[in-house]
Amino acid sequence: MEKNILSITELTKNIKSILEGNFRNIWVKGEVSNLRIPTSGHMYFTLKDETSQIKAVMFRNRFAFGQVQLVDGMKVVVRGHITVYEPRGEYQISIEELVPAGVGSLYVALEQLKERLKKEGLFDPGHKKPIPMIPQCVGIVTSPTGAVIKDILNILTRRFYNIEVVIFPVRVQGEEAPEEIAQAIKEFNILAKKPEVLIIARGGGSIEDLWAFNTEIVARAIFHSQIPIISAVGHETDFTIADFVADLRAPTPSAAAELVVKNKQELNATLNSLTIRLKNIMKGQLSHISVRFQRCHQSPIFLYPEQNILQFQQRLDDAVNTLMLLNSHLMEQNKAKLQNWTVRLDALSPLNILSRGYSITSKLLTGEIIKDVSCVEMNDELKIRLYQGQIIARAVTVGDSGKEGSREGW
Questions:
Q1: Do residues 109 and 84 lie in contact, with contact meaning Cβ atoms separated by under 8 Å?
Q2: Coil, helix or strand for 97?
């Protein structure tokens, strides 16, 4: 039996295919050791725990999360996939994301929930509802104490003092916060007089402080809200799942207040500017129409309408006369053509040929034209068509005249 012997390259490629196809997008926790950063800027190190280790590589373009400064001995959580470096036959983890282990568990949970909700379509732009330009009533879901609510109310009243504001006080941190925030959104949606837009707001903080806005219950409440929602959680650099699901993300709570209502003075100025533009456009259009009217009014067709009608009648008479001449000429041409064809057809007419002494012979019973003596039997009754009249005869002799083998009869 012939053995299937693999080369080292073939074996390595098979191992590479198996490993890289089955270990993708995995999370690993470990301690950094043997860190090496060559001039290329890529990071090469070993991840280890108490009993095992794995080589790791993080390419320069993957330094994303917080620009972490790696050192030997640091505990980290990484996300990546297994690859095989064929020249040395070594497997390693190629890292896509890296965070210190202190926030690793929360970060991993956040990324997993974000990925699941994204696949369900909660982040799709097609689900985003437009924010009304000038809402009459604004709902706010936030803590009733602190600087956030004061800043929002100050900006709202300053920009549009007669706007109606409804506040639903909730906790924005702690175990009870997600349920309270989600319930507030639901309560706003069942009001008889619903706000036209909602602001969900909280000040800045750590990932733990903002965690209520990274929960599934809050994300789904935002997604199912019939009222457009602006998410204003944390500082400009903070991002939560609520920001991705909301119809609009504001970098700060103060910015949310500025986004939700336009400045009344700015709106008045814009309205005045548009009014002036509209008047100018209308004046231009009226001036243009007036010029056209004057031109039409001075046109001979309006000044002397009867004369123009008479001219058109004369042109119509000329056209009729021309048409009649063309028709007469065409009829003469067709008549000459008809006469020509009549002469040609008459020359080809069988009657014209018969007038020169020829005849047409056919069988009396079938009407078959006789073209050859082989078509005639003894005693066949024949009809002979002459130029004038016809003769009924019977064949008494059949065959070529004067040739042997002729058939005779009477």
A1: no
A2: strand
Look at the pTM and tell me if it is higher than 0.70.
no
Locate 126 and state its tokens. 């097609």
| Tokens 């040609």 -> residue | 344
Give residue-wise pLDDT tens across range 34-75: 899 898 888 999 999 888 999 999 988 776 444 467 788 888
The radius of gyration of the chain's CA atoms, rounded to the nearest angstrom, is 51
Domains with residue ranges and CATH for the chain: 8-102 (2.40.50.140), 137-261 (3.40.50.10550), 360-408 (no CATH)
Using one digit for the tens of pLDDT, what is the confidence trace for 340-380? Answer: 998 888 777 777 777 777 888 888 888 888 888 888 888 88
Contact residues for 285 (Cβ-Cβ < 8 A; gap 6+): none
164-204 tens-digit pLDDT:
999 999 999 988 999 999 999 999 999 999 999 999 999 88
**Region for 405 from its dihedrals, namely left if φ exceeds 0, alpha if ψ lies in -120 to 50, beta otherwise:** left
Our measurement of the distance from residue 293's CA atom to the centroid of its chain's CA atoms, rounded to an integer in Å, reads 47
Distance CA 98, CA 83 (A): 17
Tokens of 248: 């609009």
Q: Output the CA angle 168-171-175, nearest 5 degrees.
A: 140
